[in-house]
Amino acid sequence: MAIKFISDKKTLLSLIQPALSATSTKSTLPALEGLLFSLGSDGMLTVCGYDLEKGVKTSAPVYPKEVGSVILNAQKIYAIIKNLPECEIEINADEKNAVGIKGGASDFMIHGLAAEAFPNLPELTGDRSFSISQGLLKEMIGSTIFAVAQIDARPILTGELFQIEEKKLTIVALDGARLALREEKNAVFDNRDSFRFVVPGKALGEFSKLISDSEELVKVEFTRKHIVFRTGEIIFFSRLLEGEYLDYTRALPQQSKIFAEINTADFIESVERASLLVDERLKTPLKLRFEDKKLNISCSTQYGKVSDDIRISKEGDDLEISFNNRYLLDALRACSDDTVLASLTGPLTSMMLTPTGHRDSSYIYLVLPCRVKN
User: Fold this and answer.
1) Coil, helix or strand for 34?
2) Are 173 and 144 in contact (CB under 8 A)?
3) CA distances from residue 85 to 6, 19, 110, 328, 342 in whole angstroms, order as listed
4) Residue 33: is it exposed, middle or buried by C-beta count within 10 angstroms (0-12/13-18/19+)?
5) Which terminal Cβ of the chain has fewer Cβ within 10 Å, N or C?
6) Can you give the pLDDT at residue 42?
7) Helix crossing, 201-210 with 134-142: angle to 10°?
């Protein structure tokens, strides 16, 4: 179907860039590597990317000349528009999907695909919904997504659990070695219900790049199989993961015996220094020794030895415990307070990191220790 319109570079990039995140780069179906351009009689141009797992739709007004639609290779059209000068750009596709792109002194012709080759989109109207600020949602995803499982031995763990109870939102991610939980008591607007669903981590990672740190609201709608995020002129949608999420509450220590209050920045810097001698191939663990008012972090590898001390405030017995340095750093960097409370029970049970004060926002990070041969 022919399509013809004129727009400016800024508008076209604002439509194409978000949709790029939902295109496939390894598909045997050319349509999944493309973007669907659709021009309506109202002069609104819609650009859509969809890789059968997640999708993005963007819309903006352009100067219409001929209503229609065509699929264009995502990487090629993005590269062409990005490299054109700031000028009026005319895109013109004929009935055979030969597409002319004119801007400044440049004149491109690329081969498009018929719009009919684009996969059918899921229903983008959910039967349940709520709203949340972009900045808060971005922060909650960013502070938990590191604990999403990267391999799909248990597919449900490659996603994050969203648990909503009226205004409270809890997001949980866990793999075999760590758990991340973030809870906000007054996060959700326009909702009086309780529900839970699991969103793929990869989709959340892409969506969080599209939203800002502002207080502008994201409207979230979902059905039994899909979730839809609406913000400004962008609609982001993804399939939901099916199955029952693990009962994460069973992993939380019930009775810790050792409590250490530690300056978060000091903790991170000490772990980073000790990590300089970690053997990445052997995944050498860091040894943490909690004693009196001191935390000693050490590591011994083929490269040498390191020992680093920081001051802490501790209650309970002394303890020696070992951790994977990357897992420990991921959890510490997600802690948003100046000081963090480390709660421990023994050398073979998880260390729990929580805020030191009581507030509406809370988090829990668990890191499983490494077994070390004597």
Assistant:
1) strand
2) yes
3) 15, 22, 19, 47, 55
4) buried
5) C
6) 95
7) 140
What's the half-sphere exposure (Cβ side, CA atoms, 13 Å) at 217? 11
Strand partners, 171: 162, 182
pLDDT confidence bin for 281, thresholds 50/70/90:
confident
* pLDDT tens profile 168-213: 999 999 998 999 999 999 999 988 889 999 999 999 999 999 999 9
- Asked if 61 and 93 touch (Cβ cutoff 8 Å), the reply is no
Q: Are 207 and 236 in contact (CB under 8 A)?
A: yes
Q: Side by side, which strands form the sheet with 98-103? A: 63-66, 3-8, 88-93, 98-103, 106-111
Instruction: Return the structure tokens found at 365.
Output: 């990070």
44 class by beta-carbon count within 10 Å (0-12 exposed, 13-18 middle, 19+ buried): middle
Q: What is the pTM of this model?
A: 0.91
Q: How many CB atoms lie within 10 A of CB 95?
A: 9
**Euclidean distance between the first and the last CA atom of the chain, given in angstroms as a whole number:** 72
In the numeric block, which tokens belong to residue 299?
Answer: 């590591």
pLDDT in tens, 253-278: 888 899 999 999 999 999 999 999 99
| Closest-CA residue to 111 (of 96, 125, 121) | 96
- Non-local (6+) Cβ contacts of 244 within 8 A are 156
| Closest by Cα among 344, 287, 352, 286 to 317 | 344
Nearest to residue 162, comparing CAs of 125, 127, 137, 192?
137
* Spatial separation of the C-alpha atoms in residues 102 and 96, rounded to whole Å: 18
Task: Reduce the secondary structure of 276-342 to three states and give it as a string.
Answer: CCCCCCCCCCEEEEEECCEEEEEEEECCEEEEEEEEEEEECCCEEEEECHHHHHHHHHHCCCCEEEE
Round to whole Å and give the CA distance between 233 and 247: 37
Residue 162: both structure tokens together: 């969203």
Could you give phi then psi for residue 123, rounded to 5 degrees?
A: -65, 125
Instruction: Write out the DSSP string of 162-192.
Output: EEEETTEEEEEEE-SSEEEEEEETT--BS--
The answer to whether residues 210 and 168 touch, using CB atoms and an 8 Å cutoff, is no
Nearest alpha carbon to residue 256 among 350, 372, 177, 367: 350
**Contact status, residue 241 vs residue 249, Cβ threshold 8 Å:** no
Alpha helices, DSSP H, located in the chain: 9-20, 74-83, 134-142, 201-210, 264-275, 325-334
